[in-house]
Amino acid sequence: MIRTSCKTVEAYITKDGSSIRELMHPLVHGNLAQSLAEATVPAGSTTLLHRHKVTEEIYHILSGCGLMILGEESIFVEEGDSICIHPGTPHNIKNTGEEELRLLCCCSPSYSHEDTEILELNEIQDHR
Questions:
Q1: Three-state DSSP class for 114?
Q2: Is residue 64 part of a domain?
């Protein structure tokens, strides 16, 4: 059995600018094919626009609300929503609420900085 607790996992700032806690990652915990992290975005803050070449992500909003760029779409997200982000899709999230935005992020294959490419907003049109 592999078990972790968010109470004991140290947070760090990831490549997109969000603060995350890697709750489960193959390189740290020995699970096989995916990673799970809790991310937080302070009120009024926005993560950097980015994409992953091979990783599929699922965001699940634990608390708060925000506006998410997902490819060419902008969508409002709130507590209880789950969003699938296909590989190669530019995305970011802005916390539009007054409290911290908290979400779970599941990545398959597991998250890596090397698979994360930071983009400029005008690059969305270039990847249609």
A1: helix
A2: yes
Residue 82, domain CATH: 2.60.120.10
Residue 3 falls inside a structural domain: no
Total domains present in the chain: 1
The C-alpha atoms of residue 10 and residue 61 are separated, in whole angstroms, by: 20
Beta bridge partners of 60: 82, 104
- Reported as a single tens digit per residue, the pLDDT across 35-92 is 999 999 999 999 999 999 999 999 999 999 999 999 999 999 999 999 999 999 999 9
Q: With beta carbons less than 8 A apart as the criterion, state whether 62 and 6 touch.
A: no
pTM beyond 0.70: the answer is yes
Task: Note whether residue 7 is domain-resident.
Answer: no
Distance CA 19, CA 33 (A): 22
Give me the domain span that covers residue 99: 13-126
> For residues 110 and 35, is the Cβ–Cβ distance under 8 A?
yes
The answer to whether residue 4 is domain-embedded is no
DSSP letter string over 35-83?
EEEEEEE-TT-BPPPEEESS-EEEEEEEE-EEEEEETTEEEEEETT-EE
One-letter amino acid for residue 36 of the chain = L
